TrEMBL record:
The lineage of its organism: Bacteria, Pseudomonadati, Acidobacteriota, Terriglobia, Terriglobales. This is NodB homology domain-containing protein. PROSITE patterns: NODB (PS51677). GO terms for molecular function: hydrolase activity, acting on carbon-nitrogen (but not peptide) bonds. InterPro entries: DUF4015 (IPR025275), GH (IPR017853), Glyco_hydro/deAcase_b/a-brl (IPR011330), NODB_dom (IPR002509), Polysacch_Deacetylase (IPR051398). Coiled coil: none annotated. Pfam families: DUF4015, Polysacc_deac_1. GO terms for biological process: carbohydrate metabolic process. PANTHER family: POLY-BETA-1,6-N-ACETYL-D-GLUCOSAMINE N-DEACETYLASE, PTHR34216. Residues 83-240 form the NodB homology domain. Keywords: Signal. It comes from Terriglobus roseus. Residues 1-18 form the signal peptide.
Amino acid sequence: MSKLFLLLLILWPLPVKAQRDPVRGIPVLVYHRFDQRQTGATTVLTENFVEQIDWLAKHGYRIVPLQDVVSMVTENRLPPSVRQVAITVDDGHRSVYTELYPLIKVRHIPITLFIYPTVISKASYALTWEQLQEMKSSGLVRIESHTLWHPDFRAERKRLDGQAYAALVHDQLVKSRSILEQRLGIQVHLLAWPYGIFDDDLMQAAEQAGYTAAFAYDGKIAMPNDPRLAIHRIARSPWSRRLPGARADGCSQAGGEAMNAMRLVLLFAAFGIWTVRDCVAAVSQRVLITDANTGKAVSRVTVVIDGRTAPVDGSGSIEIAASAKSVSARAIGYWPYHSDIAALREQSTISLRPIAVHALYLTEYGIASKALREPVLDIIRRGGANALVITIKSDRGNLAYPSAIPLATQIGARRMTTIRSLPDLVTDLHSKGIYLIARIVTFKDDPLATAHPEYGVRLNSGGLFKDREHLSWTDPFRREVRDYNIAIAVEAAKAGFDEVQFDYVRFPDCPQKLQFSGTADEAGRVKAVTSFLAEAHKALEPFNAFLSVDIFGYVLWNRNDTGIGQRLEEIVPAVDYVCPMLYPSGFSFGIPGHPNPVGTNEDIYQTVRLSLEESIKRTHADPKMFRPWIQGFRDYAFSRRPFGAAEVASQTRAATDAHADGWSLWNARNVYTDACLK
């Protein structure tokens, strides 16, 4: 039976004796935002709210404190009247104070605010502590918990391992109560589940945290036999007076007044025919993208809706169509964000979690070796790092995992497997809270050049060029070479890596004259490198993975392309992160004003800091676009000094002081100490 037919049945006049008996429960209505001009999936026109309240009064409904609902459930008793309703407002938007509060003062309406405190007095769209204090003092407004920062518990359970997830749940439930109680001088006993997501474990955690009741978000009327920690609530109506048009305000095809919408809400919920979420799903939604810590809007965000990049306006918000299924977002300095659309329907923000990447490097062998892998993971568990760079295509051109790319098998690049499943590896490491970077050695590719000499870099004599390791390189101009490496990057992104990092995206540094399929002067080299990066960046966009590139340290200082196609000003716009190899030992000729890069720990510090500051000055780019590779191995160019805890600490401090996006520590043997990683 279609929903439209059921809708007609509800609205069709019926004989009195054919109507059902009234449902003996209390509807708990949920609101979020109020506005005088525009409506949306979580925003009600102020005049519509007034009409809805008038409709309730006209039809004999009495607005009661939420505690009456809690008492009905905890005492398992029927309410004294079938015409009672409670009003709740989630999140803490400033319009609660500017639009709603003046109305409830005049009409003496009791309401309950469910607040997540991390945005209060921080986000421009949020309430302030002073406003909450004033509303609380009126005696009409009760303030309760909506967790600490409104997480999607379903997504967090998938992302974190058991211990980390339990810690997150504890913080969300306990810290929220503590902050609200300390700032407002109140007792917090009630909880609203973010996005309406809860399960038995979460309800048990809420009880242990001291909550006496908690509320769901499922479009049903609260009944005496509801679970005490999952009491039903009904979303507020999204309709306005306007008929549907280019910007539909609701799913009522008949249009009509806003009180008809309230009637539908109550009828649909009472009879279980059509939940309010069905109507909300028919409305486009504007979502603000914010910093999870500060609540401020995040700039320079890339949003992907159902695999396609979507425009973000100047205020940092995005319009999400009713037909959307999934939403992803990313911005430099933050974890990538992924969500299905259902989790966003009751929320007006996408909160991005900041991260400064502190990465350790593991080869394709290191990730497979328990002797090498476990000490690295132990450093991460103790807080010394939070990310891994893992080689999936090696310096010798071998793919470490079962790739579905036919060319990889044809050229013999799949002779050995050290990573049995990329998705399984990602799932396991994400559950430990680790940011993951897939390293791909790009144009240095002996198997591809050997199997297809026409793709290789050639000597004037016609033979394949061999580098100091007697390995062949591929031609950066060749379409087949570019497509192959981009296909590998896409496999990594599909597996769930947060970032794909290309290494050896350059021409060979060779004094001999070499032969390429394109014009290999400076302009040609630079164009080949930067256009490849731009193509890869576009290919990765649907999968919400960042793109980074490793470059020589001297590229930050040289105004030319260093003879390898890497020119800083052209590379920066093509990628998300630039990862210069700022190993002090690599600056064998020194840098301007700093002739001895490894003389003392202070010299080591200055080598990294001065190089980063030079790159920022030259490009005017956000410092967080730069994440340097730093040295975790013995000096090879100057004094042969070992690089231990003090030397590494000098480099990490330099990266921090230059406001870079963290650092990545390189040791080819994958042997690290956490003495310097704090």
